[in-house]
């Protein structure tokens, strides 16, 4: 099970758009996926058309037992193969600026129970636990996508503690460039503190307009700072993204030229995520060890 976090320390750059686009690509290509909505705004939960549940990710962070996790997972309205660990405004109570180590590992502990099938880390059914999730048992997921809030508190650090890879999302503006630098530093810090498996997968640039001199300047600036970590493919600024989200549909089913252009970027991103899970995880530094090319 590969766990990837979509991350930005500046709001409004489209990290939820990237989480949803990646989830849609996984659904389209038959990759069983869990979308974890860790942002208290819960926009990913709404856009993925998840029904109401008796628990949310806030409850899982209170008590990461498997019985609570099962009640907080709902099937996405997008189709079979995508489930949502639903978000809620109450998740904000877990966003402490200086969390302790036990607080930071609760999400990772909960996700580990997707693999083991029990609360004590052993294989087996949990006794006397009714099923309220999408299936009678929590099916194993090939991919877990965590949509982080745009701040570096307990929630984002919990995601980085649980993740194998982080996609750093930005747009081509001055303030967003500084935000992605802080996000990269946060990934490196969390890797040294608690999660040696964590690596930045790359920097994905969103809302790019062609023939915009400011955007071209900022993209070149990002490539100078992060080198091969900047994805070759960028997400164009297309109204189809907002239209699909407003209709609670994956961009992959929105049949316009703009939607197809965006979907191709997410397909490439999915391929890169899945390849990263099947390869050794070298320690990456900016300017070293070019990541695999997007195909």
Q: Describe the main β-sheet briefly.
A: 7 strands, mixed
CATH superfamily annotation: P-loop containing nucleotide triphosphate hydrolases
Q: Structural class, from secondary structure content?
A: alpha/beta
Spatial strand order of the main sheet: 3-4-2-5-1-6-7
Looking at CATH, which topology would you report?
Rossmann fold
Low-confidence stretches: 122-136, 280-295
Label the overall shape. globular
| Overall CATH class | Alpha Beta
Cα-atom Rg, whole angstroms? 18 Å
Percentage beta strand: 5-15%
Oligomeric state of shown chains: single chain
Level-2 CATH architecture? 3-Layer(aba) Sandwich
Q: SSE string, helix = H, strand = E?
A: EHEHHHEEHHEHEHEHHH
Instruction: State the helix count.
Output: 11
Which percent range fits the helix content? 40-55%
What is the strand tally? 7
Gap between N and C termini: 22 Å
Overall mean pLDDT stands at 88
Describe the structure concisely for a colleague:
This protein is α/β, with parallel strands linked by helices and 295 residues long. The protein has helices spanning 15-28, 43-47, 57-62, 66-72, 101-104, 106-116, 154-162, 174-193, 213-226, 239-246, 257-277; strands spanning 2-7, 33-37, 73-75, 82-85, 143-147, 165-170, 199-205.
């Amino acid at each position: 099970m590969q766990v990837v976090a979509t991350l930005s320390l500046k709001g409004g750059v489209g990290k939820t758009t990237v989480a949803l686009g990646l989830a849609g690509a996984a659904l389209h290509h038959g990759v069983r996926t869990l979308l974890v909505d860790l942002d208290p705004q819960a926009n990913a939960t709404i856009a993925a058309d998840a029904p109401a549940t008796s628990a949310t990710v806030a409850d899982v962070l209170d008590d990461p037992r498997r019985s609570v996790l099962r009640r907080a997972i709902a099937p996405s309205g997008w189709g079979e193969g995508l489930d949502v660990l639903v978000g809620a405004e109450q998740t904000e109570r877990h966003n402490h600026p200086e969390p302790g180590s036990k607080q930071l590992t609760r999400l990772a502990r909960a996700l580990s129970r997707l693999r083991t099938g029990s609360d004590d880390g052993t294989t087996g059914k949990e006794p006397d636990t009714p099923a309220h999730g999408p299936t009678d048992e929590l099916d194993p997921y090939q991919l877990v996508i965590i949509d982080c809030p745009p701040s570096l508190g307990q929630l984002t650090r919990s995601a980085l503690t649980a993740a194998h890879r982080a996609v750093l999302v930005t747009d081509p503006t001055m303030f967003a460039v500084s935000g992605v630098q802080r996000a990269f530093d946060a990934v490196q810090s969390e890797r040294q503190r608690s999660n040696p498996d964590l690596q930045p997968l790359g920097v994905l640039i969103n809302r790019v307009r062609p023939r915009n001199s400011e955007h071209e300047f900022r993209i070149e600036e990002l490539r100078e700072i992060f080198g091969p970590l900047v994805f070759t493919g960028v997400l164009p600024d297309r109204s189809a993204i907002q239209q699909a989200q407003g209709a609670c549909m994956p961009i992959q089913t929105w049949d316009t030229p703009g939607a197809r252009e965006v979907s191709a970027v997410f397909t490439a991103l999915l391929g890169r995520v899945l390849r990263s899970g099947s390869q050794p995880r070298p320690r990456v530094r900016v300017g070293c060890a070019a990541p695999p090319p997007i195909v």
